[in-house]
Design goal:
The protein contains 7 helices and 5 strands. The protein is α/β, with parallel strands linked by helices. A 5-stranded parallel beta sheet has the order 2-1-3-4-5, sandwiched between helices. Helix 3 links the parallel strand 3 and strand 4. Helix 2 runs parallel beside helix 3. 22% of the residues are buried. The mean pLDDT is 86.
């Protein structure tokens, strides 16, 4: 039985009821609400894995709610639903981190498939974060001698900047380790570290 939690926010009771029924049949824990403000309080207090969010709501509109959800919990997956879809709304939702955009009338099969894919994406992102943390914990500069302390200070100074850094040293002295530590402490730490062997480029 799945332990994954889904929140449905829609001002139409029929939509809430049908989505709740079909998703509970798939084994998910499902809660519903019709208010954007109330949903934000629920997101703060409970750990939802997925949110189905209507764009047109009586108080806050869905785009604003999506933006606030991502500020509260970046890793929750959000699927936007609407009866009046537009390319602009879909693009805006995607830019703000929505996983998908479904138009009413909803196909229940498509809802179930979208839920499975969104939750799979969430699990992959969480695994990726754990692997990154594991790798980061293994990259350390060990030692307390003056030279090591000086390098640590230089890394601390260089990492937050956007400037280019030249690392020099003999083979085996740890240039790549220093480069990885700079990347790890930089504003781009969540981006990919790309290692290029310049000597191998024709």
């Amino acid at each position: 039985m799945s332990e994954e939690k889904i929140l449905i926010i829609d001002d139409e009771s029929g939509i809430r009821s049908s989505l709740k029924g079909i998703l509970e049949d798939e084994g998910y824990i499902v809660k519903t609400t019709e208010s954007g403000e109330r949903e934000l309080n629920m997101v703060r207090s409970e750990n939802f894995d997925l949110v189905f969010l209507d764009i047109w709501l009586p108080e806050l509109n869905g785009i604003d709610v999506l933006e606030k959800i991502k500020q509260i919990e970046e890793n929750v997956q959000v699927v936007m639903i609407t009866g009046h879809g537009s390319v602009e709304a879909a693009v805006e939702s995607t830019k703000l981190g929505a996983f998908n955009f479904l138009e009413k009338p909803l196909s229940l099969e498509k809802v179930v498939l979208t839920a499975k894919n969104a939750l799979k994406q969430k699990n992959l992102e969480e695994e990726n974060i754990l692997l990154r943390e594991k790798i980061r914990s293994q990259i350390q500069l060990i030692g307390q001698c003056p030279a090591i302390k000086k390098i640590k200070e230089q890394i601390k100074t260089a990492a937050p900047t956007t400037g280019r850094v030249l690392i020099q040293g003999e083979n085996g002295t740890g240039k790549e380790l220093v480069a990885r530590l700079i990347h790890q402490k930089s504003q781009r730490k969540n981006k990919r570290f790309i290692q290029i062997n310049a000597a191998a480029i024709p």
